[in-house]
Amino acid sequence: MTFQMLKTEKGKDMLCYDGHIFLKEKENGTKSIWKCNQYYKNKCRGRLHLSKVKILKNTDHNHVPSSSEIQIKKTLNKLKDIASNNSDMSTQSVIGSALNQIPIESSGQLPNINILKRTIQRVHKQKLQLPNDPTDLNFIIPDEMTKIIDENLFLQYDSGINI
Ligand SMILES: [Zn+2]
Description:
GO terms for molecular function: zinc ion binding. Helix content is 29%, strand content 20%. The protein has helices at residues 67-85, 91-99, 104-107, 113-127, and strands at 4-7, 13-17, 20-28, 31-36, 47-50, 55-58.
């Protein structure tokens, strides 16, 4: 059995162990307690108690392990990694390289393609170099700053730099 540390959508720590996915519940000193991610959905009480180096307690789950769910989460982490390291890559190619190793039986559980695309666009946006704050009226608004997420035009009018 191997541990795998992943990140949730919101960037929180997520731990995969024995086919189950855990979210950090609490941590104090050298001990941390992780609860099953089906805590709310299925009222699963499965918990993993960890010291820094070993499992102290691994209580029972009320459902079977889900390796395909882990596969999906790994794929989404990979997708974000690729997007974040390749700002020039098209959303299509990012999706292509993130999904090329996913087993066919898991691929049906992936989020909708549009959600994947939006995730990539969001990661790419975060990577964009923001310009310095303008110090006078003569500044140029970069093209990518004139649009909102859905790519519709946000800036309605720009008189240019020769007012
Ligand atoms: Zn569980």
